Amino acid sequence: QVQVVESGGGLVQPGGSLRLSCAVSGLTLNLYTMGWFRQAPGKERSFVASIAWSDQKTWYTNSVKGRFTISRDNAKNTVYLQMDNLKPEDTSVYYCAAGRLTAQAMGTITPFAYRAMDAWGRGAQVIVSS
What we know:
Blueprint: E1 3-7, E2 10-12, E3 18-25, E4 33-39, E5 46-52, E6 58-60, E7 68-73, E8 78-83, E9 92-99, H1 103-108, E10 119-120, E11 124-128
Parallel strand pairs: 2-11
Antiparallel strand pairs: 1-3, 3-8, 4-5, 4-9, 5-6, 7-8, 9-10, 9-11
């Protein structure tokens, strides 16, 4: 049984930091790329960052480059999203997903193609507000 479970969301002030975690089970992770996506109220889900489990190649959307860092812990089957210098526009529900494609491809496919992901978590709320 495949499980993808996010944790670590919360309320943070602008300029602050949060680290999201995504624990994965039931997948042979070396065959997958893990990605973080986000969806704000009334907006379409969008890509944030991805990491290929086998070679740790990463890809980021432009708006988070230099502020967010994606990484993975092979021993814990967990992927992380370190978010620094958070801005109010980062407020969203953040979702973790697994897909059999490259890190770059995960970052460049259209939202219509998100349905091809093999697994999604239920999301973690991040609110950036003073």
